[in-house]
Amino acid sequence: MSVKLFDCRDAFSETLVQLAREDGRVVAVVNDSVSSTKLKMFSKEFATRFINVGIAEQNMIGIGAGLANGGKIPFVCGASCFLTARGMEQVKVDCGYSRRNVKLCGMSSGMAYGELGPTHHSIEDLAWMRAIANITVVVPADPIETASALRAIAAFDGPVFFRLSRMPVPNVHAHDYQFKIGTSTCLRQGNDVAIIATGVMVARALGAADLLAEQGVSARVINMSTIRPLDTRAVIAAASETNGIVTAEEATVFGGLGGAVAEVVAEHKPARMKMLGVPGVFAPTGSAEWLLEHFGLTSEGIQNAALQLLR
Amino acid sequence: MHKYADNQTVTDLRKAANQIRLRSLEMVHRAGTGHPGGDLSCSDLLATLYLHTMRVDPASPSRADRDRFILSKGHSSAALYATLARTGFLSDTDLDTYMEPGSKLNGHPDRNKVSGVEANTGPLGHGLPIAVGCALAAKLDDAVWRTFVLTGDGELQEGSNWEAAMSAAHYRLDNLTLIVDRNRFQQGAGTEETIHLEPLADKWRAFGWHVVEVNGHDHAALLDCFESLPFVAGKPTCVIARTVKGKGVSFIENRAIWHHRVPTADELRIARQELLGETV
Fold first, then answer.
1. Over its length of 311 residues, how does chain A's per-residue pLDDT go in tens digits?
2. Which residue spans within B165-275 are E strands per DSSP?
3. pLDDT digits (tens, 9 = 90+) for A114-126
4. In chain A, is it the N or the C terminus that has fewer CB atoms within a 10 Å radius of its CB?
5. Is domain B8-276 given the CATH code 3.40.50.11810 in the classification?
6. Which of B64, B134, B166 minimises the CB distance to A66?
7. CA distance linking residue A146 with residue A15, whole number of Å
8. What pLDDT does B1 receive?
9. What is the pLDDT at residue B101?
10. pLDDT at position A81
11. Do the Cβ atoms of A69 and B118 come closer than 8 Å?
12. Size of interface A-B (CB pairs under 8 A)
């Protein structure tokens, strides 16, 4: 049986249009990224509330902060690599430090741009954004969570980094799932090992749990869709109730999900860990799918890491 | 002849601006750190905007239809705080805590701590993009409130200003006014010997702005200028305010070292005399 796969950007763009219909304060700001953000529909229905600033990310984020000052709820959308790196000081000062109600939507994050290479990969964004005070960091795992989380961050008053991939993923949540900022979801119960994953890695973590189950290993799978504030309770429980934690993220292992989990574990409940991600290198040339395999960011890779922990 | 020349408004503004200057110097002296040169060059601009031109209400600092002012040159915080105190957003005793441990008066303004501050600034090149966003928000609502942003001149070396300049013209933001504090100095030297800005007016015109050049210490001219906004429907306005860095105090004027030198008690006494004609 083949599993249906989705591009989360579709749920993103449809939900943003619905939000704009419901709330006149919702506006979109883009850096010429109309098609890559899939906001064509939004731009047609809300021509004046769709602000294209051209290829100018610092300005784009500053404008977002100004729109928020004027009472709008700006969704500032661009490829995550440019949005975060090019506009980092505006993210820090105009959004985080100023505590402005700006929603920074980093599209095609991780290594989704594959062959385009490390200039277009955004594997540092989790570490960067997580380091900035006041910024909530949300990474949905599937279209259902994308839609629910987008509604949640629109209703939340404060700056948010919303990290979205373009890699096809299956739905891992039930249709009535409700995302809550700062609350992780345990998608699979288990007490031999815990797998804490985020974004596109969540479905792969569930695949790893299936493979481990065939070997008689019960794996807990946690979807950590808010990286900041981290659901520390779930992390401490995983450290206490299992034999070790595997983290899996489509990002550098320096300072992202793995780092966040390790900080909690080290301080509250020391436990064995394996941190899967990009191991501090720029990726070689290859498709997104090939790169995930190259770095062991597959169900088999997670399975192997879990087995190593249990040895 | 300016409409406002010799009238009471001009006299009052001149006096207020000099009081703001002196208060800034006192604050920097007390704190033992600060940026007095830039405080003094923009004091007339701040006084004119806050005490006459802008619609702001200290009793209702967040009302949606207030005019916005963004101090992009956030290091001129002493002048801004002294102006906010004169306007009623701060008390005069607040000013004595400038940069003290735990004070709400940080070296660069924090909107979450100080009522009347619209944006946290400090790193240069942030104010104009934010101001463009404010002006866009007003346009989206067909609202009449206006946005003013004050940048330094050296600050215009930051590329983000020119990104914002393009977008302001593209979106026809005639409710946006940029004021450039053109004192011709940056931290260590003159702007023209560091990275030259001239022909500055032509640059803004080329970017689609209406440009007005004015003496930034002539309150009558400033009042005339701000009364005439917007000059051209559909165009943002750039007011290049020709100023003197350290204006009003003889030994500070046009001396690069006073970008962040701290006045001694003796220097403060001389400054008081020069600014207010008072001896202590």
1. 578 999 999 999 999 999 999 999 999 999 998 888 899 999 999 999 999 999 999 999 999 999 999 999 999 999 999 999 999 999 999 999 999 999 999 999 999 999 999 999 999 999 999 999 999 999 999 999 999 999 999 999 999 999 999 999 999 999 999 999 999 999 999 999 999 999 999 999 999 999 999 999 999 999 999 999 999 999 999 999 999 999 999 999 999 999 999 999 999 999 999 999 999 999 999 999 999 999 999 999 999 999 999 99
2. 176-182, 210-215, 237-242
3. 999 999 999 999 9
4. N
5. no
6. B134
7. 9
8. 46
9. 97
10. 97
11. yes
12. 108
Q: Any CB–CB contact under 8 A between B106 and chain A?
A: no
Query: Beta strand A226-228 with A136-138: parallel, antiparallel or unpaired?
Result: antiparallel
Domains and CATH numbers, chain A: 8-163 (3.40.50.970), 185-310 (3.40.50.920)
B3: pLDDT strictly greater than 80: no
Residue of B nearest to A48 (CA): B140
Assess B66–A contact: CB distance below 8 Å, yes or no.
no
- Show residues of chain B in contact with A74, CB under 8 Å: 133
Return the structure tokens found at B33: 């750190």
The residues spanned by each domain of chain B are: 8-276
Cα B76–chain centre separation: 8
Which residues in chain A touch residue B236, judged by CB atoms under 8 angstroms apart?
A: none
Closest CA of chain A from B97, distance in Å: 21
A118 closest CA partner among A248, A249, A281, A259: A281
Q: What is the DSSP string of A139-160?
A: ---SHHHHHHHHHHHHHS-S-E
pLDDT surpassing 60 at residue B280: no
> Which residue from B112, B133, B134 is facing A99, i.e. has the nearest CB?
B112
What 3-state DSSP class applies to A41?
Answer: helix
B 171-210 residues with CB below 8 A of A? 171
Query: How far apart are the C-alpha atoms of B98 and B94, rounded to whole Å?
Result: 7
For residue B163, give the nearest of A59, A89, A99 by CB distance: A59
pLDDT above 80 for B6: no
CB of A88 within 8 Å of a chain B CB? The answer is no
Residue A169, class by beta-carbon neighbours within 10 Å (0-12 exposed, 13-18 middle, 19+ buried)?
buried
A-chain CB neighbours of B134 within 8 Å are 66-67, 69-70
Tell me, what amino acid is at B255?
Answer: R
Which residues, in sequence order, are CB contacts of B179 under 8 Å at separation 6+?
A: B45, B148, B149, B150, B151, B239, B241
- Which residue of the set A14, A57, A145, A250 is catalytic? A57
